[in-house]
Amino acid sequence: MTASHVDTRQRVLNGVRRPVNPRWTALVLAIGIAASGCATNAALRQGQVAERERNYDEAVIAYTRALQEDPHDRDAQLSLERAKLRAAQTHYTEGRRFAQQGEYEEALAEYHVAYDLNPSMGDIERELRETRNAVRAKLESRESGQTELEALIDRTQEAAPPGLDLPQGVA
Questions:
Q1: Is there a contact between 96 and 127 (Cβ–Cβ < 8 Å)?
Q2: Interacting residues of 65 by C-beta distance below 8 A, sequence separation 6+
Q3: Do the Cβ atoms of 60 and 87 come closer than 8 Å?
Q4: What is residue 128's predicted lDDT score, i.e. its pLDDT?
Q5: Model's pTM, two decimal places?
Q6: How confident is the model at residue 53 (pLDDT cuts 50, 70, 90)?
Q7: Consecutive H or E run containing 168
Q8: How far apart are CA 101 and CA 123, in angstroms?
Q9: Can you tell me the distance from the alpha carbon of 68 to that of 136, in angstroms, rounded to the nearest whole number?
Q10: Gap between the Cα atoms of 91 and 157, Å rounded
């Protein structure tokens, strides 16, 4: 062995680090970047497949995962926004279908998901309010099948307004 080999070997044994080869550092960094890019690309591809299959909830999950892996990925950002808009519209449509069938609790759940995905969608707030009112009215239904408001309207239609009673003997 040469003196330099003995010296290097002795430094390693004594805990002294030897200089790192810049080529190895670059190779390790390139592998790390490629591996993280592959994970992001895999999540992005999963989102694209889900979107093509019109499974917008799955697409939102996949694109969110892609953004967590690379927050600066512009493709993932745009894809997530698009998937959220489509998912919101899908949940809104489902909510309307449930409301038309009188299934107000299910409609309310769908409207909440749509609102969480796209709070700027104008019709959602109105539908949420109307559906909450329908749920309250359904809960307040009396045994006769009438709500309190319907019963009050029936009672007032049968009674004459105060002060407009006809005098006795006039018929």
A1: yes
A2: 43, 46
A3: yes
A4: 85
A5: 0.60
A6: very high
A7: none
A8: 19
A9: 40
A10: 41
Written as six digits, the tokens of 152 are 């009050």
Q: How far apart are the first and last CA of the chain?
A: 134
Query: Could you tell me the CA-to-CA distances from 97 to 54, 82, 106, 116, 132 in Å, in that order?
Result: 18, 23, 10, 19, 15
Please tell me the predicted confidence (pLDDT) of residue 1.
Answer: 52
Residue 79 banded pLDDT, cuts 50, 70, 90: very high
Max distance between CA atoms of the chain, in angstroms, equals 137
* Residue type at 97 in one-letter notation: R
How many Å apart are CA 27 and CA 29, to the nearest integer? 5
What percentage of residues in the chain have a pLDDT greater than 90?
35
Identify the three-state secondary structure at position 71.
Answer: coil
Q: What is d(CA 148, CA 64) in angstroms, rounded to the nearest whole number?
A: 47
Coil, strand, or helix at residue 114? helix
| Spatial separation of the C-alpha atoms in residues 35 and 88, rounded to whole Å | 33
Q: How far apart are CA 81 and CA 91, in angstroms?
A: 15
Instruction: Looking at 14-55, list the stretches that DSSP marks H as alpha helix, in order from N- to C-terminal side.
Output: 22-52
